[in-house]
Amino acid sequence: VAQLSDGEKCLLALAGDLARRLAIANPILTKPLEGKGVVLIDEVDLHLHPEWQHRVIPKLLETFPNCQFVLTTHSPQVLSHVRCENIWCLVQEGDEVTAVRPDGTYGQDSNFLLKTLLGSSYRPKEIEKDMERLFELIREDTKEARKLLENLKTRIEGDSPDLVRAETLLHRREVFGK
Q: Mapped to the 3 state alphabet, what secondary structure does 49-89 carry?
C-alpha cells in the first residue's frame, strides 16, 4: 500500500469503506456490493491522475450499481465523461445560489469545459489576452498580427494548435487578402 499514490490510496479507501458499509447494512445479501444506498463524495477527483479522473465515476457506477452518487468536482476531465443530464452546476450570484444544468459535457474538450463551465482560463491571462488580440489583428492588420504572432511564438513553449491556426490564417490573408 505504501507504494500507491495518494490518489490510489484515496480511491482504495473509498471503495473499501463503501463495500464494508454495504456489507454491514445488507448482511443477508449474497452480493452486498449490489446493496442500495446514497453516497456523497466531495471532490471525487482529489489526488487522482487525469486518466483516473476519466474512469472514477464509470468504475464507481459499475462496482456499486444500486447506489446513487452525489459528487462534487472542479475537474473538466471528470465532467467530460459525464452526460449533462447527470450534472447540476451551482452558480452563485450575490447571496443567491442557483442550480443549473449545463448544455453539454460528455465528450467535450477539457479546455472548453474549463473555460465555459468552470469559468477558468486554461492559459496564463497575459497569453490568453494576446491570443485574443492576435485573432482580432489577423482580421484587421496583418503587419501587427505578424509581430504579435512572432512574439507569442517566443513565449509559448512547445507546439500550439492555436499558433498553427493563426499562422495559417495570417498566411492566407497575406497571400489572398482574405
A: CHHHHHHHHHHHHHHCCCEEEEECCCCHHHHCCCCHHHCCE
Tens of pLDDT, residues 35-75? 999 999 999 998 889 998 999 999 999 999 999 999 999 99
- Domain match, 41 and 59 both: yes
Owning domain of residue 17: 1-73
Bridge partners (DSSP) listed for residue 93: 96
Tens digits of per-residue pLDDT, 16-30?
999 999 999 999 999
Same domain, 27 and 62: yes
| Cell (9 digits) for 121 | 482560463
Same domain, 59 and 6: yes
Kindly report the average pLDDT of the chain as a whole number.
91
How many structural domains is the chain composed of?
Answer: 3
> Residue type for 43, please?
E
Distance in angstroms between the alpha carbons of the first and the last residue of the chain: 61
What global pTM score does this model have? Answer: 0.74
Say whether both 115 and 132 belong to one domain: no
